[in-house]
Amino acid sequence: MRVLELKNVTKRYGEFTAVDGVCLEIEKGKVLSLLGPSGCGKTTTLRIIAGFTSPDDGTVEISGENVGHSRPYERNVGLVFQDYALFPHMTAAENVAYGMRHRGTPAAEIPSRVRKMLTLVRMESMELRYPSQLSGGQQQRVALARALATDPQIVLLDEPLSALDAKLRLELRIELKEILRSVGATTIVVTHDQEEALSLGDEVVVMRAGKIIQRGSPTKIYEAPADKFVAEFVGRSNWFQGSPRGESQDGVSTYVTANGIEIRARSPSGRHDGADLCIRPENIELVDGAAGEVPGNRELNVLTGVVLDVAPLGADVHVVVELPGKSRLLAIRKNVGRSQAVAPGQTVRAVFDASDVLVF
Ligand code: ATP
User: Which residue in 55, 109, 228, 344 has its CB near the most CB atoms, within 10 A?
Assistant: First the structure.
């Protein structure tokens, strides 16, 4: 069942178009991540859904009903803001109860519902604390409990984890995902953090300059980005500009960079113009030495270079390799211990498949 549908929603501020003909629908129980750089119109889209901002054009339907004329409190939408926006003079329990009172939940049902919500977010032991007596992560949980308490048709989360430090962010991200799934909440999460978007969403919608550029599963967005912008924005990548050389054979084309580096790419059709080539760092294998056994075939790229920098980042090691003409390549390998360690100054070959080269 379709819970939300935006049809051609546009919002202008003077000459500037903040949201530009956005069409978006979401099915019941799904979590959608709205991802894009700062200023691309994510928050404005969320505010239009919640009813805080009116669109200049287009319609918003919630459960098939055009809500264009209803005020925010008349829409059954649960909101969690970036800074949680808890009422400072109310305890955790009172904060959770607040929305229910205003939405007409029978008074007798409120205490048990508050307890249920606080238990859901593991805050039942802190119900009498005020926001100033809670950590950022705990406040975020209370804000989530408050948003879910009225059993909203849609839950809107605006950068819900951005105020937390990296470790807590990761913990709460996993918890948030579990909670949303367990209550079957239909949710839109706005974030500019690609990891957050890919891990929380059943689907990811990428926005740029007020428009939706791509919508798809997290895997699709990462592995088959619609354009250079999406590829650059989602995940790390190495970029080369190349001109095609010769005809493509069996779907594999050879491109040559200005520095004379040859890169083979499996691209759907032969191209005659220059192309931007993108290689994800985790798809690059590093092989010791300049010579020796690397199976040579048309599907494989083998580029020789010198290790410039090695950064051991816990589970992964980031290795920067300098190729001829001073171009650089980042390779990410698993931290598998000393036996396979590489060191600055060492000659290595960077090996990657032609099918792992994205062509734009
Ligand atoms: P961020 O991640 O930084 O919050 P965002 O993608 O959520 O960014 P929005 O807050 O939706 O971006 O803003 C989109 C654009 O619209 C921005 O360029 C912003 O400056 C502009 N904008 C938003 N609200 C107003 C307003 N009330 N008046 C004028 N311009 C506005």
Answer: 55
